Amino acid sequence: MPSTIVFNQTHIVGSDNNTLIYKFPTSADFKNHEIAVESVSINYSWVNISASLNNNKIQYKWYGTSGLTTYDVTFEDGLYEIADLNARLQYEMVKNGTYLINANSQNVYYAEFVVNPTRFAIQLNTYPVPNSSQYSATGQNANFVGWSVPVANVLSGTAGWVGFHSVPFNPQVNMLANDFYKIIGFASDFSSSLGDGYNSINLSYLSTTAPAVQPNTNIYLALQNIQNPYANPSTIIHNMIVTGSFGSQILDKPSEFAFSDIIKGQYSQFRLQFLGADLKPLKILDPDIVVVLLIREKKMTS
Questions:
Q1: Lower CB density within 10 Å: C or N end of the chain?
Q2: The CATH number of the domain where 246 resides is what?
Q3: What is the 3-state secondary structure of the chain?
């Protein structure tokens, strides 16, 4: 009859909630034993963008009266869908005063990320910013009657608008030397065009590889004390497919138990770790974790 050991949040070590250590009351001697996962209960609470994942920064460039200016966009640690990434980009544009206000008092942005479902891609759109001849303090092109500039930045209290350039341009969005490009499926060195300086045209760019918006929908459990010859690394004891929305409970109960050999020896503790798809420790926000393991003595073979 198998015995059980239960890992829960009282066994968590470290601040990332990905490592649990179960200490035996006394040293346990495992001579001919195997172990399997009986169940896992965990809340979906790991992020897809963070400083630790090295995928939280992009930049954009914008022409103003003082010339071409570069603005950094830093995404706070979190789980983002494409609409959230776009909202953060536009938040930065408001903060930097790189937008306009139309006749209906709506903010007008000149770069956006959107989902293109028919192409299974992320699409970056950039739009031409009015130049100083189209829009000036003394008169506007008919297309911009009733429009205005952000005279003050409500987020910082400073002057918001950076001025009109003398020629048409599109904001330039650039990938940086990090892994953000994988999220949207663009090339690692991607830069959109500033336009040709003569024509006002909309520009669109599509992912060139499959976007990995949530790279950790398949996670692994690694147990330091086993030897699984069919896994790499050999400490992998179980994998989980993530379903549901952010914050929802994931309850994983295998229909069949996959037992792995416990390396022979005496142990004072078992160490369990949650790994992401890249086999690196997963940063988990919610410590409400329960993992039940089954231990049994191996059947003797003749």
A1: C
A2: 2.60.120.1100
A3: CCEEEEECHHHEECCCCCEEEEEEEEEEEECCEEEEEEEEEEECCECCECCCCCCCEEEEEEEECCEEEEEEEECCCECCCHHHHHHHHHHHHHHHCCCEECCCCCEECCEEEEEEHHHCEEEEEECCECCCCCEECCEECHHHCCCECCCCCCCCCCCCCCCCCCCCECCEEEECCCCHHHHHCCCCCCECCCCCCCCCCCEEEECCCCCCCCCCCEEEEEECCEECCCCCCCCEEEEEECCCCCCCEEEECCCCCCCEEECCEEEEEEEEEEECCCCCECCECCCCCEEEEEEEECCCCC
